[in-house]
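pinging the channel bc i need a second pair of eyes. not urgent but kinda urgent?? the chain im working w is below, pasted from the shared doc
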Amino acid sequence: MTENPVTDSTANVDTVTERVEPLARGVWGVVATPFTDAGEIDEQSLARLVQFYESVGAAGLTVLGVFGEAAALTAAERMQVLGVVAQNSRLPIVAGVTSLATAPAIAEIENAQAAVGERLRAVMVQANSGAPGVVTEHLRRIHEATGADIVLQDYPKSSGVSISTDSLIAVVEASPFVSAVKAEAPPTAVAIARITARVDVSVFGGLGGQGLLDELAAGSAGAMTGFSVPEALVSCVTAWLAGDAEAARAELLAYLPLINFEQQPGIALALRKELFRRRGLFATGAVRAPAASFPRELDPIAADHLAELDVQEVR
């Protein structure tokens, strides 16, 4: 008789049943990786960005995520990025893991631990299968090897893996070392409501903040995402967590056209980097292939968005 994969995997979970502390609520800024025109890591721009995130009240930084172009970086460059972030900000760090396979994921995490040390609050691991037993075993092996708390990311557009919300909940229930879920499989508000009703973990939306107000209403702990005006996300989430839903809505509404502009499929990364350049945070808007570059046809539209909001250059 075929054994149940969920039962098999959960039987092997560490005997410690007490769940780790949920990841802090608020806005975790997803850090884009700036490059020079020569294609090297731009350490000065990276330092400016993380210092700015800290100055506007971010709860923490998510480094080497999808929008950090981690898949386009060498192992040495990933450690370089983490080192620059740790040296230029006091905020806790979540390090993204690119690999969907267990052994290389463990190697990535060990490198991150070597680069950041105690500053590493958690690692963000993508769901690597639609089968909850497979994901649970993957996370268990990672945690046993590294001791790291885990943020479980459900982002099928990036990973190519689809997992149902019920299966995701089963994984989290069986994995007490999971401190948060990043829910990026639309409809995100539905998933967030279901997860928070069942498991005591922080659940964050992403996707540039497009669904932020609905996600907060569904019970999210905030946002784990990037946006060229992160202070708007911080103001919105801060107001919401203080119990003022009306103020939260007012803080975000004016920025929704820019959020929508920035999240255009296929060019979202280039748009965000170009907007960071226009704000004075990045020296260039360069991306690495195969990412698409900023379309110059959008020059006047980007300028209009920033002018309409009177977004100031960061100095």
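so The chain has one domain: 5-245. and The CA atoms of residues 47 and 88 lie 6 Å apart. — does that match what u expected or am i reading it wrong
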